[in-house]
C-alpha cells in the first residue's frame, strides 16, 4: 500500500502530466534506448515514429496518477498491458530499467519543478505498479506453460501460405517438434520473432484467424507500408511476405490477449461483429466459434468493411460460412468499391458503417458487439453504439498497436 503523502503528491502532479506527458514520454524512450539499447527489440519502430507509443504511455501514466488510490479501477488496462508484456517476453528484470529511466526523465524534463519529494513519491508509486504487473505476468506465464506446454519462443514451421487479398497473406504455422496444439481462445494473438540483418531480433503480435482446435496457428498478415511520411514499411510483415517460404521456420510465443469471445448467456441474444480491414483477423476466429457453439436460432451479424474487392480478405471463407449457417447474416460494405464490385456482388453496399446499416441489420434488439479495425473506425463505431444506447459491457474491441483514447 502507498503512503497517503505519496498518494497526495502524485495526484498533485496530474496537471503537469496532462500538459507535458507526451514530452516526458518522448524523452523517456529516447533516453532508455540510448542508455539501455537491449530493450529496443520490445518496441515497434513504426509506432515510435508515428508517436502512438509515446501517447499511449502518457495516457497510461496520467490514468495511474488519477486512480492511484484505487488501482482496481485500472484492472482492464493492467490485464491488457500484462498480456502484451508476456507476449513479448518482458520479465521482472526489465522493470528496474524502465523505472530508472522514467524517474530520470521526470527530473530532466521538469527541471527544478521535479523536487525530491516528487521523485521519491513517483519512485514509490512506480514500485507498487511494477509489483502489480510482475505478479500478474508471472501468473500468465504459468498459465501459458500449463495450457500450451511452453513459455517464451518455440520453433514453428510454415506448413502453407495462402493469398488472402491483394495485401494480406495467411501463414499456417505448425510446431517443428510435431506436438499437438492446445486450444487457443478465439480472439487471441501470437508473437512472431524474426532475425534482423545486424544479428538482433524483433517481434510483432498477430491475431490468430483460424478456428481453435486446428493443427496449426494461422496468422493473416497485411504487408504494411509506411502511411505517414517518414514512417518505415513494416519490417516483420515485409519479412514474412517476401522471405518466409513454405518449409522454413520462425519463432513463435504462445497465444496471449484478453480480447476473447464470451457468448451471451441469453441464447437468443444476437452477436454482431464489425470488422475493418485487417482487423477482421481476430473476428474470423470468433465468428467460427460463435457459429459452432451458439444455439441454431441465435442471430449472428457479420459486417465487413473494406476499401474495395482487391483488399477484401476472407471473401470466399465468409461466403462459405454464410451458405452453411442459416443464422448468419453477412454484409460486406466497401468504402470505395471498384467498377464491378457492386455489379458482381462482391459487396452489398458502399460507404462507411453507419447508423442506418446497424438499424437495418440489428434493429432495436439488444446485442453484444465485437469490433476491430483502424483507430478512426473504432472511434466511429464506438460513437454509433453509444448513440444506440449499447451498454459498455456489450462493447468489446481491440486496438492493433498501442491503445489510444476513442471516446
From TrEMBL:
* Ranges of residues in domain FAD-binding FR-type: 151-262
**Where is each Globin domain found?**
1-138
Supply the InterPro entries for this chain. Cbr1-like_FAD-bd_dom, FAD-bd_FR_type, FNR_nucleotide-bd, Globin, Globin-like_sf, Globin/Proto, OxRdtase_FAD/NAD-bd, Riboflavin_synthase-like_b-brl
Transmembrane helix keyword on record? no
Which GO biological process entries does UniProt record here? cellular response to nitrosative stress; nitric oxide catabolic process; response to toxic substance
Q: What class of enzyme is it?
A: oxidoreductase
> By what name is this protein known?
Flavohemoprotein
Has UniProt tagged this entry with the keyword Chaperone? no
Amino acid at each position: 500500500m502507498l503512503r497517503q503523502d505519496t498518494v497526495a503528491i502524485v495526484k498533485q502532479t496530474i496537471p503537469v502530466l496532462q500538459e507535458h506527458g507526451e514530452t516526458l514520454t518522448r524523452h523517456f524512450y529516447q533516453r532508455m534506448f540510448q542508455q539501455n539499447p537491449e530493450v529496443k527489440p520490445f518496441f515497434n519502430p513504426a509506432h515510435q515514429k508515428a508517436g502512438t507509443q509515446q501517447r499511449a504511455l502518457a495516457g497510461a501514466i496520467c490514468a495511474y496518477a488519477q486512480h492511484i488510490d484505487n488501482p482496481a479501477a485500472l484492472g482492464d488496462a493492467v490485464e491488457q498491458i500484462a498480456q502484451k508484456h508476456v507476449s513479448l517476453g518482458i520479465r521482472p528484470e526489465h522493470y528496474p530499467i524502465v523505472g530508472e529511466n522514467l524517474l530520470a526523465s521526470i527530473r530532466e524534463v521538469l527541471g527544478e519543478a521535479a523536487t525530491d519529494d516528487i521523485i521519491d513519491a513517483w519512485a514509490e508509486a512506480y514500485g507498487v505498479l511494477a509489483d502489480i504487473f510482475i505478479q500478474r505476468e508471472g501468473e500468465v506465464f504459468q498459465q501459458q506453460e500449463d495450457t500450451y506446454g511452453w513459455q517464451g519462443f518455440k520453433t514453428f514451421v510454415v506448413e502453407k501460405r495462402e493469398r488472402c487479398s491483394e495485401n494480406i497473406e495467411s501463414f499456417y504455422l505448425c510446431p517443428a517438434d510435431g506436438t499437438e496444439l492446445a486450444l487457443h481462445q478465439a480472439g487471441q494473438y501470437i508473437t512472431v520473432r524474426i532475425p534482423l540483418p545486424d544479428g538482433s531480433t524483433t517481434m510483432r503480435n498477430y491475431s490468430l484467424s483460424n478456428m481453435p482446435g486446428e493443427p496449426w496457428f494461422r496468422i493473416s498478415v497485411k504487408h504494411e507500408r509506411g502511411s505517414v511520411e517518414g514512417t518505415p514499411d513494416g519490417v516483420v510483415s515485409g519479412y514474412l511476405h517476401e522471405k518466409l517460404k513454405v518449409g522454413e521456420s520462425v519463432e513463435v510465443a504462445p497465444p496471449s490477449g484478453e480480447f476473447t469471445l464470451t457468448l451471451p448467456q441469453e441464447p437468443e441474444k444476437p452477436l454482431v461483429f464489425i470488422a475493418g480491414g485487417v482487423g477482421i483477423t481476430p473476428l474470423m476466429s470468433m465468428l467460427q466459434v460463435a457459429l459452432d457453439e451458439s444455439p441454431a436460432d441465435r442471430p449472428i451479424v457479420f459486417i465487413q468493411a473494406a476499401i474495395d474487392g482487391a483488399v477484401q480478405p476472407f471473401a470466399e471463407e465468409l461466403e462459405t460460412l454464410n451458405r452453411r449457417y442459416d443464422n448468419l447474416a453477412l454484409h460486406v460494405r466497401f468504402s470505395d468499391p471498384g467498377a464491378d464490385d457492386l455489379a458482381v456482388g462482391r459487396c452489398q453496399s458502399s460507404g462507411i458503417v453507419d447508423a442506418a446499416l446497424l438499424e437495418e441489420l440489428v434493429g432495436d434488439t439488444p446485442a453484444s458487439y465485437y469490433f476491430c479495425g483502424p483507430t478512426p473506425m473504432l472511434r466511429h463505431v464506438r460513437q454509433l453504439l453509444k448513440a444506440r444506447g449499447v451498454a459498455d459491457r456489450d462493447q468489446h474491441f481491440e486496438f492493433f498497436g498501442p491503445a489510444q483514447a476513442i471516446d
